[in-house]
Amino acid sequence: MTAATIPPATHTPFTNKLVTHTLGFPRIGQNRALKWALEDHWRGTSDRVALHETARQVRDDSRRWHREAGITRPACGDFTFYDGMADLCLLFGQAPQRFGDRPNDLDSLFALARGQQGEQGSLAPLAMTKWFDTNYHYLVPELDAARPFRLDAGRLLEEIKESLADDPSSKPVLIGPLTFLWLSGGASREERLTRAPELAHAYAALLSEITALGAEWVQLDEPILGLDLPADWLAAFEPVYHRVKTPGLRLMLASYFAPIDGRLSLLAGLPIDGLHVDASSGGELEAIADRLPAFKVLSAGVLDGRSIWRADLAALLDRLEPLHRRLGDRLWLAPSCSLLHLPLDAGEEAEADTALPPALVENLSFARQKLVELQLLARGLAEGRDAIAAEIEAATAARQRLAALPGRRDDARRERLSRSLDREPARRHAYPDRARAQQARLRLPAFPTTTIGSFPQTDEIRSTRRAHRRGEIDTNAYERAMRASIADTIAEQEALGLDVLVHGEPERNDMVEYFGQQLDGFAFTRAGWVQSYGSRCVKPPIIWGDVARARPLTVEWSRYAQSLTDRPVKGMLTGPVTMLSWSFVRDDLSREAVAYQLAAVLREEVADLCAAGIAAIQVDEPAFREGLPLRRAGWDGYLDWAVRAFRFATALAPTDVQIHTHMCYSEFNDIIAAIAALDADVITIETTRSNMKLLDAFAEFEYPNEIGPGVWDIHSPLIPSVAEMVDRLELALDKVPADRLWVNPDCGLKTRGWEEVRAGLRNLVAAAHELRERARIRSSRAG
Asked: C-alpha angle 437/438/439, rounded to 5°?
């Protein structure tokens, strides 16, 4: 069996009354074309015309692929040069006051996304956080009651007009009004809800303009329906949707990422023409069909829009056939959510010179393959299973070959892991005892300075890794180059005056991929890129088999870095929950079970680092909150195993070894007890864009361990001054005791250049010295 058996990305359309549609599509383009165009534009090496030409090609390709697959109503209007929430912010005239009165153009979008240098200093960009429980980040609008919603929709309308000219059946897709309000900032949720009537009026005006372009359907996305919404927010749906209902235009309300448990009566009664539900996890469809009025469409999101695995066509038809007999052409088929969260085309893996086993490759289904699977299901319903019998048989046989692949299951290792987990994992001593032992060993000053891990990934570093991967240089030459980079990074940090150093991670292409490449059970695609935010793309590994470690992963690099300096150098690991969340995970084993497998290999690595003399080890968990189920009913179960996996990974560290962890843009208030239960000695978090407001949760909880709130937003090209950093640290001191406060950037520095890094860290170290001097003066006065 060869990789050529992967489902094709094109399909011969057939005549039927079943509508197939999409909720969105990847927008980075082939070979990440939009990423490169954006970054060239920001560097000033290409003009705006070239950027627009690339964007037009990305949209043209998307429409062509939908057409080739036979999709009835392709999504449109979902394209963005950076982020859809930021686009809506400008579309409704809600740029923050600090940016002035901005038009809805690309300069404004990039200013909101990346910040801007103004006459009075740097203008901070919008805060960024995770889009529900995905690894996509959105920009958080800052709503201001003094700024009325004002429609400026030219950019969006031009894109919709472009799509309708190509295919009049195209369906514009917009983030819904209540989801936009819920996810925004700048005011309390209660205050934002009071603006719902005003925003609904603005949406109605927008929908009228879309209707005038000739659109027949518009999709409004309301994924907040999968959350535990307060009663007043649920009650707002009916009046808001009565206001946005537009004559001559049909509305599809889309909910995804979670079931709509308990909301069916509300949704069935809304003035909408269709309801899309995420049915990828089973259930609900029959109950919804029972309650949905006979004139409304039910869109069944049965293909998991976040899963890379080939669909089980037979099982899906088992679910859909009874529904189709009841609903007929009132049943529409779709992926569960936008295909934004998938790579573009698994066919590139089948055609590439790849080390992936054919039995794995033939089971991959990326965005383009999902389009074909959608049409196969429609054909199977319209013409009967015999019409797609060959495709059903091929899909079933492919899954059987994957199940039989060597490495898929290791019963002996599973049994050993189960025995190890019989006891609750914990460090040998409590934090106060550990803190004393660690200070005796590390001898750190007040307000110790450190970084989060990575340093600039220069063109030279990338080209060296690439040359080694291609066999153009041997391993000895590669390792010499990496050691030279590590030595330079250590020297730079010593010269800057940092207290706890890192080796800079020149050998790492990605914080998950680097580890997975050395572990059994992982596989890596050639072109499986997914957008994380803006131009930032990630290539998630695939966990397809049982995870195991054959040898130490990081020890030699850490040992070498520590040999170059008397200052402590942190060992750098990616935590089990983040490796799980930032990978495409097998669908035949629970996420909890896979997390424990990952924790087991990290446990071995922590023990080896400690034995090598490493006195501080950082186990990053930026995706810890991301894994939370959207409904609170599932939180306790998730947090129990997520915390347990982290503690299992770190429990063998001796008392005098300092365990750090790092978390990215998150709201910590409702999970602060679980964060404390991780029992990391030091946690560093991203707080610059929130101006330290994220520390409120730690202060109110009286978080017992040490905290490093970020004082430099490394996602923006702006370098904060010493005074700005000191001001942020003074805010932090209102919430964190001085003897437990660290000074650090928000995140790793791999995406920044050395000139920026030196300037930023120089200011950061100076800010820490200023804080120490102020503390000395306060102490002397108190004495």
From this structure: 95
Cβ–Cβ under 8 Å, residues 697 and 668:
yes
Tell me: pLDDT of 2 over 50: no
Distance, CA of 541 to CA of 53 (rounded, Å): 31
| Closest to 710 (Cα-Cα) out of 735, 730, 684, 680 | 684
Mean pLDDT across the chain? 94
CB 374 within 8 A of CB 303: yes
CATH of domain 436-457+492-518+553-667+674-782: 3.20.20.210
Rounded average pLDDT over 685-692 = 88
**Exactly one of 66, 660, 715, 769 is catalytic; which is it?**
715
Residue 493: CB atoms within 10 A of its CB come to 25
Q: Does an H or E element contain 117, and which?
A: strand 116-118
Percent with pLDDT over 70 in the chain: 97
Catalytic residue list contains 324:
no
pLDDT greater than 90 at residue 702:
yes
Mean pLDDT for 521-545 is 95
The residue extents of the domains of the chain are 436-457+492-518+553-667+674-782
Give me the pLDDT at residue 215, please. 98
Counting beta carbons within 10 angstroms of the beta carbon of residue 632, is it exposed (0 to 12), middle (13 to 18) or buried (19 or more)? exposed
At residue 14 the predicted structure's pLDDT band, cuts being 50, 70 and 90, is: very low
Do residues 621 and 663 lie in contact, with contact meaning Cβ atoms separated by under 8 Å? Answer: yes
> What's the pLDDT score for residue 121?
73
Say which range, 7-16, 268-277, 299-308, has the weakest mean pLDDT. Answer: 7-16
Model pTM score: 0.90
Question: Which range, of 2-11, 371-380, 401-410, averages the lowest pLDDT?
Answer: 2-11
Which residue positions form the known binding site for Zn(2+)? 662, 664, 686, 747
User: Alpha-carbon distance 71 to 13, whole Å?
Assistant: 8
Q: Measured at the alpha carbon of residue 276, what is the angle toward residues 281 and 219, in degrees to the nearest 5?
A: 140
Q: Is 19 helix (H, G, I), strand (E, B) or coil?
A: strand
Q: What is the pLDDT of residue 492?
A: 98
Going by the annotation, the residues of the binding site for L-homocysteine are: 452-454, 505, 620
**AA identity, residue 60:** D
> How is 414-453 classified by DSSP, letter by letter?
HHHHHHHTTSPP--SS-HHHHHHHHHHHH-PPSS-BB--S
- Kindly state the DSSP code that residue 517 receives in the 8-state scheme: T
As given in the structure block, the two tokens for residue 672 are 């602060």
- The rounded radius of gyration (Å) of the Cα atoms in the chain is 26
| Residue 378, SS3 per DSSP | helix
Structure tokens at 339: 């295909």
- Residues annotated within the binding site for L-methionine are 452-454, 505, 620
Mean pLDDT of the region 522-549: 95
| DSSP string for 307-339 | --BPP-HHHHHHHHHHHHHHHGGGEEEEESS-G
Binding residues for 5-methyltetrahydropteroyltri-L-glutamate: 35, 130, 135, 536-537, 582, 626
